[in-house]
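Hi R.,

Here's the chain you asked about this morning:
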Amino acid sequence: MARVVLVNDTFPVSPPRAWAEIDLGALQQNLTIARQTHGEALMAVVKAGAYGHGLEEIARALAAENIAFFGVANVGEARRIRSAGVETRIYLLGATWSEEREEIVARDWTPCISSIDEAVQFNRLAAACGKRLKVHLAVDTGMGRGGFVADRLPEKFAQLERLENLEIEGIGSHLPSADEDEEFTRRQFKQFHAIIQELGGAARFKWMHLSNSAGLLGYDPGLCNLSRPGLMLYGVSPLPGFQEKLATVMTLKSRVTLVRDLPAGHGISYGRQFVTTRPTRVATIGIGYGDGYPRHVSGKGADVWIRGRRLPILGRVTMDQMMVDVTAAEDVIEGDEVEIFGPNIPVAEIAAKADTVVWEIFTGITPRVLRCYRS
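And the predicted structure, written out as tokens:
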């Protein structure tokens, strides 16, 4: 019979091949910038694992910062925040399933309402619990993803107000193109303000919110008294002109695992997309698309940062490794730290070369990448 040998402490623990350093001090600096821009009241958006930065750790770091709400995508994220011992109010940013609503009512989480049917069920569940549930009215001013459309909204609002176990505490909408279409966005603000006036004016609602990070940085909030920063909290401005105000929160790192000298005419990586034209010193780095680094940067001129230098990635990024030209950096050796993105290689640059958005890069960093936190 085969003998099973268990792993024990006989061997030293291997250092991580890829890790993300999360600067909680920088997170708090960016929160301060958000507050200085348009007032104190903020809903910190922490959905999708706090944009890949770690939901529980980010929620704990912000719990003492007088945040009005944590914005989450679903009930599962809400549960994780509560399980982390954080009591900040939770706002569900999207539509909920009927099966989830009993828990939402029981735990006093705040849903946004996009239909009469949702509201009726929430009202019935709240009545059964003997409570009045705080809800926000979601209005579709151009996103097309959820919310009441403006047509016949006053009539529907009157129906909602007759539901005795719901307190319509707030009203919100969403900006689909604040970082791309200024003219449309300004019309959207104007429409949202007109809707508020039509429904009874600013005095009717405790909370009025429209601005995401781009809206907060680039536009006058008008009647709105609550903003929903997401990306900017994590150190990236969707409007390039404001980037210098923000501090980098995540630095993705790896290590050099191997350094070799290759002759001219030698292919590098799958498909031989890159073939050396001269003798080339090549470093192999222990990170790849299995860690969330985008394969689509292959052949697009992406760099990494080693020993104070930008050095180019060669050939295709593979699942667990990538290769880098270190011919110009003779001092690079096995074990050297490599900045994949961070203060020297902006994540927005990587996103552009991958033909995607920073949100996808951040949320795509996989669980096998260790998150390390410092304040």
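The chain has a mean pLDDT of 95.

Let me know if you need anything else.
M.
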